[in-house]
Specification:
Length: about 575
Amino acid sequence: MARINKLQVRNYRSIGGWVEVAFPETGPLVLIGENNAGKSNIVRALDIALGETWPGSFNPEDHDYHQRVRDSAPMQILLDVDGIRHMRRDLDVIQISWRYDPDEDRSCAFDAMLSDGTSAWMSNAEREQLACVVVGADRRLSYQLSYTSKWTLLSRLMRRFHDVLIEDDDRASRLRSQFASIVEIFKEVEQFKGFSEGLRRMAGEFGANLTYALEMDFSAYDPSNYFRSLRVQPTSDGQVRSFDELGTGQEQILALAFAHAYAMAYGAGEAGLVMVIEEPEAHLHPLAQQWLSRKVHAMSEDGVQVVVTTHSPAFLDLAHVDGIACTRKPDEGGATAVVQHGIESLVGHCRALGADKADVDSLPDFYAASATEELKSGLFARVCMVVEGPTEALALPILLEACGVDVLKAGIAVVSAGGIGSIARWVRLYTAYQIPTFAAFDADSHDDKDGVKRADLLTSLGRDPASWEVPGEPISASETYAVMNPDFETALRALFPDAYAAFEGEARQKLGSNKPIVAREACKRLAGVRELDGWTALQMLADSIRALLPSAGAVGAAAPGSEPAEAASVVEGEDK
């Protein structure tokens, strides 16, 4: 079956130097990253090469060039593929190349690199072996289920049905006869019969001096595609409905259902299908997102290469890390970079940060089993702050905002790891995707009496546990971590000796004894009295986290020619 193995893009919109995305062997390709990081531009590049518009007709405008500079490097899109046969040359296509260079005579070139090392022009015969359908955020279900162009899902499918149908002359003849009978029934409506005859007469009169006469009439079928007479309509309670009656969430799900059925009908053949779904979470409530995520992953197992752009952790499956591609702009206003790992490169990263027992067989399942929606949301953050439990996760954002760091506005995720022993594993994962990460933990955790878990955490942060000493201050912050001595609540009581204990007591009387809720309420009260002593330590903590926000930082690049399935893929700025 035809499929994409790798996509490379250069000098297109937010993409400057070569950016590379590897398609996983199983499961969907999930593009994540904050708004304006470049996910949609990767999708657009894929659509230029394999979408419904012929690539050679694409004429870039100024904004299509990176930083609007036309005289920089050529705009290029490369697709490494399997399963496509070049019909004229009878050779396998190993790479599809689209290139636009206004300084060349042939400004727009769409070629195939063949298995013998030569190149040849691409034609529709090759391109149609790997269809690409983009279900955009506008959810144009009615468009995909129409005959607006020959590239819609319905048009593609009905052409395939037609080709099989006309292989049998007797079957085609019987169908023509049946359709002719249907037209005669239509003509029982006198108004329709009169209009039909008038249309045919007028067409003949208007075209009398033309070389080729045009006979105009109504027919119940299109002889060039019998199946084109069929329409897809939604129904409810046995009644046909219009697409306008559907909610946007329903439209999206039905579009995916149609694509899945398409793949099941023809996915087992030589032709392939790439289904791009932009923001599948849009218009769906959280439980529906989780259900749809299951169906998307199931679709990818039935012959469809699925590409998803998303802002929802529901669509992340950490058991398939090779399908996660994190788009980022390491510099404010800079170019798109993509960080992607195969399981072996992720294991190597974790081992380098102290996870000696990590291996390719267990690591994906380990992360998938321990991931929560909250922890997966850290992969969407500009900075991730990992804390021990829900008390810190609820209370620290309030204290940070009082110190001038609004975590929601800044894109900082404060996530609970579920104990000091779990912080290290998430520090390793977030830093693998080059997300600036900050850890906050207790100096004297009740479940780490021998200090083994704390030592593992320090190693994941690049610190030597043997030379580390417990700070004497209630809260001590460094560049990448903060220590609460001996724990979060006790540290706040020490910094604010009378006020915090009083606020805790009032919160317990009002809300009960739930520790995280009490701490959150007490911190809300504390944030209103900035004149108290003790805020200096919290301000240092806030300043350390603020310093991690991307500004002039850089994302590390893979070496030229490195294999993205086993190492972090190429990022912006790499010269190919």
